[in-house]
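Reviewers of the previous submission asked for a worked example of the structure-prediction workflow described in the proposal, so we include one complete record here. The input consisted solely of the amino acid sequence. No template or homolog information was supplied to the procedure at any stage.
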Amino acid sequence: MDKKTRRPRRYLRSRITRKLILDTALEVFLNEGYAKTTIAKISEQAKVGYGTVYSHFKGKDDILNKVVDNVLIDFFNLLEYPFAPKTLREARDAYYELVLTSFRLAEQHRPIMKVYQEALGQSESIFGHWRDIKEQFIASTARSFKYAQEQGLAKKFDVQLGAKAYILLVDRFIWEVVNEQEKDLEHIANIIMDMFFNGFFHSSKQKK
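From that input alone, the workflow returned the following structure tokens.
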């Protein structure tokens, strides 16, 4: 057997083992919660060596971050679509789809998102990972805001600050959905769109 044959097989085994660890870790996190989950429990249930887990991941936090990344893959995929609306309606529809998708993912994966929420309050690395995710969304939103300005679809404003406000608002509602404090996802998404595209006040009617 030559080296070219051996390498793909080793790579495939490595991918299978990595997936097994992630799938098992998801079950352990859901059953035990963040604090009680350990690498020992994951390796025992996955029937792989303790060192094998560490050969694929840095530790428990790294595994949980990867699990949540897999949960959010549909949302990450949406961000890769080019934002090039020709009308205000198209722009609103694009943002509405992004926001509604994020809420639906939070609802669909509520159990593991609750574990992640627990971890956010206990782990600096988990908190930092979620912050980095939000920064990616802020940067993407700022670029789309800038595009909308250049196309004459948006007013002139600080796109970076506007994007931050937008993402922090969506982030807040994601956790409201996770904690079952908001259930009408379409209504929330429409309200957020109204805020950013129409506003709540009549600018032409000044108080006398």
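Residues 3-58 form a domain with the Arc Repressor Mutant, subunit A fold (CATH 1.10.10.60). We consider this example representative of the routine output the project will generate in years two and three.
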